[in-house]
Every structure is written in C-alpha cells, then in structure tokens.
Amino acid sequence: MGGGGTTGSSKQTSTVRYAPYVEEHHTMFLERIDYHVLMNIHNSPHARLKPFTVDEGFLGVGYVLSEFPALFDMFGKFMAGLDIEVLADQMVYAAVNTEVISDLVSAEAAILNDHVDTKILPKFLTGMRDINAVLSSSFVMGKANIAESQTKAIEKYSGELRYRMLPIAHARWERHLAWNQSVISSYASIMQLFLAARLDNRSFNQNFKVRDTLWPFTILDFQRAALGALQGASNSMTSIEGGETSQLSGVVGGALSGAAAGSVVPGWGTAIGAVVGAAASFL
Fold first, then answer.
1. How far apart are CA 33 and CA 24, in angstroms?
2. What integer pLDDT is reported at residue 263 of this predicted model?
3. pTM above 0.70, yes or no
4. Which CB contacts under 8 angstroms, 24+ apart, belong to 156-163?
5. Looking at the domain assignment, is residue 12 inside a domain?
6. Are both 227 and 94 inside the same structural domain?
7. Average pLDDT, stretch 202-216?
8. Which residue range forms the structural domain that includes residue 116?
C-alpha cells in the first residue's frame, strides 16, 4: 500500500492506494456486487411471503373471535345461580335414587320373601298346628310379627345401601365444582395464549412488511459493505429486528413458572398457578 498527496494553499488531500493486484480483485468484486444489486433491487425476497394469521389455528376456518363467549360471559354461565348446598342435595338425591339401588333392594326383598315362604312360615304353621293354635289370636299375631320383621329387614337393607352411597355423592359434588373451575381456568389460559400469539403474529407480519418496503435500501447496505471491504470488517448493515421478548414465550414461561409454584397447593393448585403465571407475563 502506498500513499501520495498534494498540498494547496488552503487544503491538503491524500489518496490511499493498495497493491495493484488487491485493487484489481476488489474492482472485480465491486462489479459483481453491482450486477447482483441491479438484478435484485426490485426483486424483494420478502414480497413472496404471505401473511399468516393465528385466528384459523385457534378458532377454525370461517370463525371469528366474536362468535365465542367472552371470558366473563363464560364465567357467568358457570357461576350464575350456583348454590353449593342445592348442588349437594341434587348429588345426594341422584346417588341414592338410582335404578341400580332399586334393583338391588328388589332383589334382596325377593330373596327374603322366598326365605320366609319356604323356611319360616312352614315351621311357624307346623308349630301352631301342633299346639292347636291355628284359630287363636296368637296365630294372627305371629304371622303379623313375621311380616313386620320382613318389612323391617328390607327397609334396613335399603337404608344401609343408600347410606353407603353418600361418600360417592360427596365425591361427585367435589368433582363437579372442580370441573367448573377447570373449565374457567382452561378457557382463561386459551384466551391469554390466543392474545399473546396474535400480538406476536401481528409483529411478525409487520416486520416482514417493513423488510419488503426497505429492501431497495437494505440491498445497498451490501454494496456499501463491499465498497469498504479493504478498510476492514465493519457492521454497517441496517437491522430492523425487534429486540423485545415474544409475548407468547412470556405467557408460556409464566404459565410454567406459575404451575411450578402452584404445584405445592393440593388439588387445582397447578392449574390456578398456571393461569396466574400467564396473566403475570403481560405485566
């Protein structure tokens, strides 16, 4: 590399020169860059990218968000008029008045009737006949006692059977309340995930739209970089990448951290923690 200069009365200029073989190859490189720039300056690679929408992925083709109930509307449908005592009574009634219980009581009554008819009554009739008491009041009272004992045995069996159904009714009541809570929590998570994905989708589409618009200027950055290649590496490329964190990754990360924190709470702690964590990601 060499240098030369001229000195004037008011200013001095200098020209930086490189070895002839370096300048020759650099000139050929610049000509090749100029060719590609002229060929592609009106042929943006971003123009062929079609905008993507997340609505179809979440809502389906032909559906819009307004066709689905709002979060508060969904919450109101599940919570409006909810009386846990009335619900408990309904669960108990449904559990102890099933056809299965009725069939079991009927089967037990048939077995007991058969036992009375084939075992107890024959012995009673034979004994009363042996003591000549068939026409006495003792005979009538004895048959009445047998019938009463038979009825009490059936009612006792029915009562015990229905009593054992109470824990099942209580478990159904708890599952029903937990299911209501699960639906609301899941619906809230879906809504938050949809809104976060929609924000990221809008940012993604806008980013490529800006890239397409700025392509004629962006491609010139490569020409400028090639022109200054002999001066050493330099970062002169224009960047339009967004440095902000994705809303979707924030929601998913918040949901996972919330679920981990909520897992120490028995029952629905994990689901509640996930919803709270996802909501906190927007803050």
1. 14
2. 47
3. no
4. 157/105, 157/108, 158/101, 158/105, 158/108, 161/101, 161/104, 161/105, 162/96, 162/101
5. no
6. no
7. 85
8. 84-164
